[in-house]
């Protein structure tokens, strides 16, 4: 099976990418639609086009939008920092984003390998552009992985692996709480968790989920101390001091995490046909994609009740009865799934009513990785659409099944159209713009083990 159908072209295109190209939270939590606050409408160019599908979709989006206009669904450019949702404790700046972009891809950060392979992995090992900033595997592997095009777990349970499918780092600016159970992030998590746990302390400081995840993740994913290692390269030392002040305190895991989180907020799929359509290009979407959007946002499918805002995600948690990783991807994952992970949100909050509920994911660039659901139990977008159309849970153990998870009664044509909207209408083919050309360390980008060097055609010699 081919894991990355577009990999060859994208690997070639990485050589052409320039560093200079980098420049809703839910309304309950953010209280704003960042685009609307700019004072002009993204959709000014649409108006009444005479194209029945376009005019109908504009009207429908205005109806389902909490703000009453379609700007609610539009993304800004990645350089428009004032329009990107951000943590007030970690404001975006150009230098901070540049530093974070390098650290996110920097394999020299990986100094705590548990498999004897230091400097062989990075944040991007499980969240890289060619896989839509997912892992591209049922179970992501960083430390202990071998190869890039078909990365494998070479060290079994000694590798750095997770008991749940790796979510995307893309469009995470529109999430206040991170992970499938939403445990990272102060807003919305008050009173949950053991206060002696590091990430809960960060929650209590009020940091948002991306910031908590990035700071904590450097330690969990065997990169603790990496920030001290990379300042041996002058460019990093200069960047840390430019961003966090000219003192010895500038270089820390916390600041490295803050920079990485700042970069992640700028990873936006804002070049997809749907986003270009929202910005006034009535011909950006095909007729099938427009029909699919009408079904997606319409009452019959009702997808927008959970998938809303620019990322078509939300801060809501639902039980849809999907399998966990051990049953959803048999033979493709190692290790056991802890009970707390199986329980989803309930495993963190301790509330029985949260059991088996998982956070609503973003929906862009889904076809870059052939695994879907928190347990990777689906292999195509069509399978997920058909599963939701049928409304029959596959996991008999799951409780608290969402009342919205019922048979939708979509026709085959309607299913086909929704699939078209999701697969191509929400596909950004230019994600390599978020990848630097090279790293100050000289290491290979993203992964740097021996097999990956061969796969990528790079060398650190």
SSE diagram, text form:
Blueprint: H1 7-13, H2 27-30, H3 52-64, H4 94-105, E1 145-146, E2 152-153, H5 198-204, H6 209-220, H7 226-230, H8 234-244, H9 253-265, H10 273-278, H11 287-297, E3 317-318, H12 325-328, H13 339-342, H14 345-349, E4 358-359, H15 381-390, H16 412-425, H17 450-456
Antiparallel strand pairs: 1-2, 3-4
Helix pairs in contact: 3-11, 4-8, 4-9, 5-6, 6-9, 11-16, 15-16
The total domain count is: 1
Q: Let me know the number of strands.
A: 4
CATH-assigned homologous superfamily: Cytochrome c-like domain
Could you describe the largest sheet, including whether it forms a barrel?
2 strands, antiparallel
Characterization of the model:
- The protein has 461 residues and is mainly α.
- It has a single domain (7-35, 74-271, 303-407, 428-456), classed as Cytochrome c-like domain (Cytochrome Bc1 Complex, Chain D, domain 2), CATH 1.10.760.
- Helices cover 31% and strands 2% of the residues.
- The protein contains 17 helices and four strands.
- It has helices spanning 7-13, 27-30, 52-64, 94-105, 198-204, 209-220, 226-230, 234-244, 253-265, 273-278, 287-297, 325-328, 339-342, 345-349, 381-390, 412-425, 450-456, and strands at residues 145-146, 152-153, 317-318, 358-359.
- The strands form two sheets. It has a two-stranded antiparallel sheet. Strands 3-4 form a two-stranded antiparallel ribbon.
- α3 (52-64) runs parallel beside α11, α5 packs antiparallel against α6 and α15 (381-390) crosses α16.
- The two termini are 33 Å apart.
